Amino acid sequence: MSAATRVIGAQVKDESRIQERRAQIAEAAARVFRDKGFHTATIRDVAEAAGLTQGTLYNYIRSKDDILYLVHQDLTARYIADVEQAIAGMADPRARLRAALRAFARAMRERHGDIALIYQETHALGRESRRAVLAQTENFIARFAGLIEAARRDGMAMDGAPNLAADIVTFLPVMLSLRRWRLRHVDGPAAEEELVAFLLRGLGCPEEIIHGA
Amino acid sequence: MSAATRVIGAQVKDESRIQERRAQIAEAAARVFRDKGFHTATIRDVAEAAGLTQGTLYNYIRSKDDILYLVHQDLTARYIADVEQAIAGMADPRARLRAALRAFARAMRERHGDIALIYQETHALGRESRRAVLAQTENFIARFAGLIEAARRDGMAMDGAPNLAADIVTFLPVMLSLRRWRLRHVDGPAAEEELVAFLLRGLGCPEEIIHGA
Amino acid sequence: MSAATRVIGAQVKDESRIQERRAQIAEAAARVFRDKGFHTATIRDVAEAAGLTQGTLYNYIRSKDDILYLVHQDLTARYIADVEQAIAGMADPRARLRAALRAFARAMRERHGDIALIYQETHALGRESRRAVLAQTENFIARFAGLIEAARRDGMAMDGAPNLAADIVTFLPVMLSLRRWRLRHVDGPAAEEELVAFLLRGLGCPEEIIHGA
Amino acid sequence: MSAATRVIGAQVKDESRIQERRAQIAEAAARVFRDKGFHTATIRDVAEAAGLTQGTLYNYIRSKDDILYLVHQDLTARYIADVEQAIAGMADPRARLRAALRAFARAMRERHGDIALIYQETHALGRESRRAVLAQTENFIARFAGLIEAARRDGMAMDGAPNLAADIVTFLPVMLSLRRWRLRHVDGPAAEEELVAFLLRGLGCPEEIIHGA
DNA sequence: AATGAATGAGTGTTCATTCAT
DNA sequence: CATGAATGAACACTCATTCAT
Predict the structure, then answer these.
(1) Mean of pLDDT over chain B
(2) What is the pLDDT of residue A210?
(3) List of chain B residues whose C-beta atoms are within 8 Å of the C-beta of residue A182
(4) A touches which chains (3+ CB pairs under 8 A)?
(5) Quick check: C1 pLDDT over 70?
(6) What does the DSSP assignment read for chain B?
(7) With bands split at pLDDT 50, 70 and 90, how would you rate the model's confidence at A205?
(8) For the segment B93-145, what is each residue's pLDDT rounded down to a tens digit?
(9) pLDDT tens digit string along B187-202?
(10) Shortest CA distance to C124 belongs to which of C74, C169, C81, C71?
(11) What is B147-190 written as a DSSP string?
């Protein structure tokens, strides 16, 4: 398993200030990149949106790629946190899986701009940055693999997609982001529910469990 | 339903030569864009790859956006053709749906570079180009909606995902392209089969039909 | 006195066809240049306006400069012809001068687009073309010098501007073209009359002659 | 009366530096444009002549049109200043008018390159720039209208050219610039004097005043 | 640590001119 | 003689990055 983070060089020593500023930069840059796309957006745009000057910006990052990396890390962490938060404190493996799926689907719909940004611009990352971001995503997929495995061991009959289960459940909900141009006008929560049901059924889950609370 | 094509201006009159050259350009540009990404690739790169001079290139297109549009149209048409070809001459609705899914999944795996390109760069298209390309995709989704409906009417019990069925079956296989960084080393045809089975099961299809020839 | 014409190379032999085509080109180019300016207009624009293809155009001229030269010759010849026509058959020297001035002022107002074009783009001509065009203009100024001299000899007291008379009378009316942005809304013929009276008075012409028919 | 200035965007904040640099740019660009003409001159030429890099140039202007506008404003302001300076502190209306005419004629002769540039390239200005520059010129013409009116009220009999007087006196001296190709070899001050006398006589001014100091 | 002006390589696009058919 | 596709040099403009203050 490779490291899910990458070191970013800085001109400034104060570590806590670096953390603060980088969060500020990531937040602003995400906004700008969502609006204009990574390549179209300029460093000037990002600096302005973050309330910094160009020069100051470069005290906390070394290149435009660094900014894109910060954004990826940040946005990815957000939807992961959504899922973790949803299952925190839950014990029943079946309920945990179902809750995780629901939280993930919801995040994909609500954070559609962020997700679209990730899927569109990951390829624009430099080699090292991409490696780190994909490692982060891989950990997330592994997390779901664990949840599925636990549910299976718990007696939830799920023999569907023995090899791809974790991939599938972490990919299909992305549809709510990437097909937003089609789904803009459908009922959001209903779509989430339909998707989760589809996933569970595809996994081979019995009907009476699919629709539980 | 809006038009799935857009007119591209040209300086050249001979229509058949335009067709020929544009195919040549689309093919070369797809290669270049897959390698470097749309924004990083230069017009010079495309011209060179197509064996044309910059000036000649601009006799057949009017802007870089035109090239991206040509590429989108071309690549989209290819996987659509794969699917159509797979079901040509088939009569049984259930078999047609299954064959269409298999062909689509296969195309997504084999044409992974093309598909990734589409998903990454559609947002870089100009307004009109994007409209046309999405209309083309929408027609494809509608095609699957028809196939599903026919199978249902034919008695294939499929009450899963009543509203999103066509979206789901045209999106999940895209995973074979966009998750290639993870799936590079799995058995391709097996993955396709697993995916198709997952989809049919999710749609509520009985097990004995899922695994038919 | 240097030649008021310049030879333009051609790929075509038939002299009468050359004359014909070049007239056609000059007329079309004048239209295009008036609309867009010489530098902004393209050879394509000119060819289209003339109903020729680019290739054919180049059978009758050798460069864009040739076209500008043709236009200058043509437009200059037109206002000169206006003046000549106005005094053709007149015998009285004072009446001839007055009629020439009136015709010239009128031409400057009515052909304002042509005149503005000449004054704006003469500097864009190549060395040889400019020389020829200025020689043509110089002949015109000399013509007026002759008219003034004749009127003086005839007893019209005109001792004003002994050295610059011909320059002045051939320049001031140009105002009706170059100040069109200000004079667009004044009464045209009245302005012409006022200008001519101003010129005659400035030349020292007695009031009773200034206002003659 | 519309505004005789137009705002030019800048990437730089220090206002005094902007003033300084723009003056430097206008001066250098005027030189380059006089030599090669606006369209033939490149941004590189201008930057080089101004001792700046291309990038730096664009920190102070936004487009080539901005440069042409700066040049127009600057050159127009110069000859206007010449006239104002010549009549500063003079009280007698007739003397003021005569002095203004002499100063203007002199400026037209001495600044012939600038004036020719203005007359050749005003049409190349963008809509807004042209509007501003013509407003500036219009103010100048109105200034002369005021001087003439004052002289008339003061008893200087000047009933010639009741409607066009200000236009005429601000246009005819331009001849010293635009006909320089003919007048290069005549005595400059004598030509100015002859021109001024012609104008005053044309306005209906009595001979004894025309030749005053 | 913050500022913001300077840099210059690089980009999409245009167009006068040529020339094979 | 007409056609119209090919050419490629050139141009205006952008922007990530640096660095003196």
Answers:
(1) 95
(2) 83
(3) 138, 141, 167
(4) B
(5) no
(6) ---S------S---HHHHHHHHHHHHHHHHHHHHHH-TTTS-HHHHHHHHT--HHHHTTT-SSHHHHHHHHHHHHHHHHHHHHHHHHTT---HHHHHHHHHHHHHHHHHHTHHHHHHHHHHGGGS-HHHHHHHHHHHHHHHHHHHHHHHHHHHTT----SSTTTHHHHHHHGGGHHHHTHHHHTTS-HHHHHHHHHHHHHHHHT--HHHHT--
(7) confident
(8) 999 999 999 999 999 999 999 999 999 999 999 999 999 999 999 999 999 99
(9) 999 999 999 999 999 9
(10) C71
(11) HHHHHHHTT----SSTTTHHHHHHHGGGHHHHTHHHHTTS-HHH
Give chain D positions within 8 Å (CB) of C123.
37, 116, 120
The answer on pLDDT for A156 being more than 90 is: no
d(CA D166, CA D141): 6
* pLDDT given at position D16: 96
Whole-number distance in Å between C143 CA and F11 C1': 44
Render pLDDT for C8-53 as a digit per residue (tens, 0 to 9). Answer: 998 998 999 999 999 999 999 999 999 999 999 999 999 999 999 9
pLDDT(A197) > 90: yes
Four-CA torsion C114, C117, C118, C119, nearest 10 degrees: 120
Distant-in-sequence, close-in-space partners of A55: CB < 8 Å, separation ≥ 6:
none
pLDDT value of residue B156: 81
Q: Which residue is closest to E2 in terms of CA–C1' distance?
A: A56
Q: What is the CATH number of domain D64-212?
A: 1.10.357.10
Q: How far apart are alpha carbons C113 and D142 in whole angstroms?
A: 25
CB within 8 Å: A201 and B199? no
| C1' (F11) to CA (D45) span, angstroms | 12
Q: Which residue is nearest to nucleotide F6 (CA to C1')?
A: B56
- Count Cβ atoms within 10 A of the Cβ of residue D43 and give its class: 0-12 exposed, 13-18 middle, 19 or more buried: middle
